[in-house]
Amino acid sequence: MYEVKVVDSRIRLKLSGSIDAEKAAKIEESLVCLVESGLALFVVDFSEVDSIDPAGLKSILSIQTRVWLRGGCVVMKGMNGIGGQRGEFTGVKAVSAYD
């Protein structure tokens, strides 16, 4: 499951459960419109994510790239557990902000 909110010109994406290819495609589709509308600050909360497969990670990184190309920022929160393991595996920690 996921929840998207716009608060003070920031996109807040709260993810939960397992992120698989089907869920990742829905998330990416809903966020692309927001990125293209000019919103440039995304906060992605992974604190309730149980697992994320490569397709899920690819979708998040795809959105991150779109935001960066528009001069924006993506902050990833709650990257402990499985999220943190994926971040370490892919080297995302070197290029992302975490709390």
Structure description:
- With 99 residues, the chain is of the alpha/beta class.
- It has a single domain (2-98), classed as STAS domain (Transcription Regulator spoIIAA), CATH 3.30.750.
- The protein has three helices and five strands.
- A five-stranded mixed sheet has the order 1-2-3-4-5.
- Strand 4, helix 3 (81-90) and strand 5 (97-98) form a beta-alpha-beta unit.
- Helix 1 (21-36) packs parallel to helix 2.
- The longest helix has 16 residues, at 21-36.
- The radius of gyration is 12 Å and the shape is globular.
- It starts with a strand and ends with a strand.
- The relative contact order is 0.18.
- Residues 88-99 have low confidence and may be disordered.
What count of helical segments does DSSP give?
3
Biggest beta sheet summary: 5 strands, mixed
Task: Report low-confidence residues grouped into runs of 5 or more.
Answer: 88-99
Briefly, what CATH class? Answer: Alpha Beta
- Total separate domains: 1
The helix/strand order is EEHEHEHE
Kindly name the structural category.
alpha/beta
CATH superfamily: STAS domain
| Through-space gap between termini | 22 Å
* CATH architecture term: 2-Layer Sandwich
Mean pLDDT figure:
81
Say what the CATH topology is: Transcription Regulator spoIIAA
Helix amount: 40-55%
Which shape, going by the Cα principal axes?
globular
Q: What is the assembly state of the chains in this entry? A: single chain
- Please state roughly what percent of the residues sit in beta strands, choosing from under 5%, 5-15%, 15-25%, 25-35%, 35-45% or over 45%: 35-45%
